[in-house]
Amino acid sequence: MKVLVIGPGGREHAIVRSLLRDPNVTEVHAAPGNAGMAEIVPTHAIDANDPAAVTALALKLDSDLVVVGPEAPLAAGVADALRAAGIAVFGPSKDAAQLEASKAFAKTVMAEAQVPTAMARVATNADEAADALDAFGAPYVVKDDGLAAGKGVVVTDDRTQALAHAQSCFDAGGTVVIEEFLDGPEVSLFVLADGHTVMPLAPAQDFKRIYDGDEGPNTGGMGAYSPLEWVPENLVAEVIERVAAPTIDEMARRGTPFVGVLYCGLALTKRGMRVIEFNARFGDPETQAVLARLKTPLGGVLMAAAKGQLSECEELRWSAETAVAVVLASENYPDTPRTGEKIRGVKKANRLDGVHVLHAGTATDESGNTISAGGRVLAVVGLGSDLVEARERAYAGIEQISLEGGQYRTDIGAKAARGEITVAGTATER
């Protein structure tokens, strides 16, 4: 099987790495890829958001399967163009990708599917935003309705700041979704879907804020770990029953079947499990941690999903190890990241026991040096017998790497390793 992976980031590097471990996958290509992917597979410099360019490349390579990584190509209709050309694709149509591309649409689907989620209002101007903020009270949660690469959400006790974020979205021609604040620990669960059948991956937890202690602005994600020892035993079954299956059924009922991965962002609140958000693709950096533990060959599962045959797949098999992914970001991320800096020490990190490095925002300069080319530059993944050892290995790896002005969090998975995460009552109370 020949597979083409679309996207430039750490998530795609993790997917490529997993596909290369599948004995039935004979060839993997990436477009546009990054410096890390270019070391292990052929890469192709195309615009990943251009449906015609992606389709032409897939046809030229005689690809059996195309895996679309990021949200922007999905929202641009890349999967639709590939399907129209008769190519199997793992990734939802433009219409189905609205589950991520529009927070308001996702709320409508959740309401119709009776999925437990935060109460919310859509605001189109400052007066509506002010009314909604006052109705829900602090902490205020304001979300840009459109795609914002994980950075369009403001959670604050400062009403003025909340209104300012809403106004910036209005000024850009958008709308906002204002929600009640959900307390409790957060969980990420990826669910593969083929339009009617769903299959869960292992839960993970990611860290959105830039600084230790969950301080500072939201980012695309600064690290993640999996599995989660502290979640209720029946959480995954409950998410399938109350969230994923009803949502996939509702999308099919609407005539827009969802094929790909439904990312369920969850809060385990005092009142039970609630959906914070949906994404229409693998989350980054959770994918880096989750796929590091997957023992089932990935290519066959993704092809089964693309062909509507997930029900024929066996349950996924997982390593008993724990994985921790720590993101190294550029100076001044998430604002205007400094790029073009040399990255040193990646080979040293990769030589450590239980450590591998996944590139995200990297490129190669004219002299052949690996340089930073984005906000999140790479992720160091540590695998260990438990969370303590996995953390030690991930941080031993990141200490080998130097990037001028680089920054990373030192507390990825730390609270869980100390046994400090608790779920109020039971996460499954109705």
UniProtKB/TrEMBL annotation:
Source species, domain of life: Bacteria
Cofactor(s) required, per the database record: Mn(2+); Mg(2+)
Enzyme nomenclature, EC number: 6.3.4.13
SMART domains, per the entry: GARS_A, GARS_C
Keywords: ATP-binding, Ligase, Nucleotide-binding, Purine biosynthesis
Pathway(s): Purine metabolism; IMP biosynthesis via de novo pathway; N(1)-(5-phospho-D-ribosyl)glycinamide from 5-phospho-alpha-D-ribose 1-diphosphate: step 2/2
SUPFAM superfamilies: Glutathione synthetase ATP-binding domain-like, PreATP-grasp domain, Rudiment single hybrid motif
GO molecular function, one term: phosphoribosylamine-glycine ligase activity
Cited Pfam families: GARS_A, GARS_C, GARS_N
Catalysis performed (reactions): 5-phospho-beta-D-ribosylamine + glycine + ATP = N(1)-(5-phospho-beta-D-ribosyl)glycinamide + ADP + phosphate + H(+)
InterPro entries found in the cross-reference section: ATP-grasp, ATP_grasp_subdomain_1, PreATP-grasp_dom_sf, PRibGlycinamid_synth_ATP-grasp, PRibGlycinamide_synth, PRibGlycinamide_synth_C-dom, PRibGlycinamide_synth_C_sf, PRibGlycinamide_synth_CS
Residue span, ATP-grasp domain: 107-307
Family to which this protein belongs: Belongs to the GARS family.
Name of this chain's protein: Phosphoribosylamine--glycine ligase
